[in-house]
Amino acid sequence: MTDLPARLERPSALAFVVYALAIALLVWSFDGAGWSAEKLLRAPPALADFWSRAWPPSTQNLPRLGWKMVETLQIALAGAALGAVLAVPVAILAARGLIAGRVVNTLVRTVLGFLRAVPDIAWALVFVVAVGLGPFAGMLAIMVDTLGFCGRFFADDMEAVDKGPAEALTATGAGKIDVVACATIPGAMPSFISTSLYAVEKAVRSSTILGLVGAGGIGIELKVGFDLFDYPTALTVILMIAVVVIGVEQLGVWARNRIIGEQR
Amino acid sequence: MRTGVKTAPVIDISVDRLAKSYGDGPPVLADLSFKVRQGEAVALVGANGTGKSTLLRCLMGLTLPSAGSLAVLGIDPAFAGRRELRALRAQTGLVSQKHNLVPRLSVLTNVIHGILGQRGGPTVWSQTFATDAIRMRAMAALGKVGLADLADRRADRLSGGQSQRVAIARALMAGPRFLIADEPCASLDPSAEEDVMDLFFRLVREEGVTVVFTSHNISHALKYGDRVLGLARGRLQLDAAAIDLGTADLRGLYD
Ligand SMILES: Nc1ncnc2c1ncn2[C@@H]1O[C@H](COP(=O)(O)OP(=O)(O)OP(=O)(O)O)[C@@H](O)[C@H]1O
Ligand SMILES: [Mg+2]
């Protein structure tokens, strides 16, 4: 009989210290997050109270809310489309070994990282200052967020494309830009589409709350609902957002399968 | 020579004491010297890993030699500037084991891409935007490989043999003077391989193109090459006219 290895490795002294530190870190984090068992116990009655006042969701304002939801989707779609289109040239600069050198690659990737690191709601605040309240600020926020997201993933997609066709064109004397346009981008197209569909899903999710800072869309109704203690309307808004977000996700899955499933 | 006039042969490629190693690795090619005349078809044979593809990549300027000098159509790709390199590559073409077509584009668009060395820009990115003259030229190239009826088929819906023919049409599109073929038919079944090799060499001979090709099929090397270069461990072990060689002479390279 051969010896089976032990199921659990005996932790080394170092591992032990790491575990202890990890636990301490967690405890410290819960403390910082204001963990309170007492508040937690008080929450269910408060929630039940909210629920009793919110139920049934209001149907009174449905047409207005519906139009707000349409505006939300418009913000998401316009912003995501613009961001994805702008992301293509940016990603070409960010992708290693395409047309730009290492320094430019790193620089562009750093900027894209910054665009992603700033939360979309913060971009919305910035654009409200820049272009005023309303959906246009929201669209710009979504655009910047999508640019950061798609720029990075488009670049990764292009780096992962089979290099064979590009090399064959290079060997006939094609210039770098022609090679990218003729071999790299067509090769990466299924990934681009998949990434863009995901960006649209993400944009719809973001655009539903941009209204909280006055950047258009249905979020404003949520804020007003809570501010005026109009809980039935707030509940309607929450349910509408859930339905739309789930619907868009399902649509994304379907479209992805439809568009690229057969080509893979 | 196709001219029929007795003049000194034009040398298309000359390789002098070429050596190559990747990074700090062992030498892949060492002390290689040979010349290729215009219009000649040279078979490069040798065991796996002896550096055949590496040599071809050096000739195209796709990788840099570590020592020695090269002249391909009068240009050393290792020292050529970007412009010069493009000018050289515009006269050359590459056909490899993997046909390397762009999968999602049409056959016609793939063939049109063969002209990118001569002219770039959006009008040759897709057959949709190409001029009639270019589209007709591409159709003619497709006709030569017998696939004119598949012009609007997507490249990833072709069989291996068809793909390889399209790759040949793409390489011929630019009217190259020198073609490199790295195991052009290795992924095809034996009868398709024979067909495509016949077609390829008929076309390049018609157009007087200089060819350097590799093959693991000894009888192909002898049948299609005017001359055979044998590599073993990165060194030239054999350089002889194909008619003077028998398969037994080449077997020794694989020991
Ligand atoms: N990019 C690379 N980096 C490092 N080593 C490489 C690289 N390309 C090839 N080599 C090495 O160089 C040697 C020669 O490879 P090469 O592909 O030229 O051989 P080959 O004669 O074409 O072989 P095959 O008949 O299998 O195609 C091999 O040992 C290979 O591992
Ligand atoms: Mg090889």
Q: What are the SSEs and their pairings?
A:
The complex is a heterodimer of chains A (264) and B (255).
Chain A: H1 13-32, H2 37-54, H3 62-94, H4 102-117, H5 120-131, H6 135-160, H7 164-170, H8 176-207, H9 219-227, H10 231-260
Chain B: E1 11-21, E2 27-37, E3 41-45, H1 52-59, E4 67-72, H2 82-89, E5 92-96, H3 107-112, H4 132-144, H5 160-173, E6 178-182, H6 190-207, E7 210-214, H7 218-224, E8 227-232, E9 235-241, H8 247-251
Parallel strand pairs in B: 3-7, 3-8, 5-6, 6-7
Antiparallel strand pairs in B: 1-2, 1-4, 8-9
The complex binds adenosine-5'-triphosphate and magnesium ion.
Magnesium ion is lined by residues 52-53, 182 of chain B.
Summarize the structure.
The complex is a heterodimer of chains A (264) and B (255). Chain A has 264 residues and is mostly helical.
Provide an overview of this structure:
The complex is a heterodimer of chains A (264) and B (255). Chain A has one domain (64-263): MetI-like fold, CATH 1.10.3720. By secondary structure, chain A is mainly α. Chain A has ten helices and no strands. Chain B is an alpha/beta fold and 255 residues long. Chain B is built from eight helices and nine strands. Chain B has helices at 52-59, 82-89, 107-112, 132-144, 160-173, 190-207, 218-224, 247-251; strands spanning 11-21, 27-37, 41-45, 67-72, 92-96, 178-182, 210-214, 227-232, 235-241. Chain B is globular and about 50 Å long. Bound molecules: adenosine-5'-triphosphate (ATP) and magnesium ion.
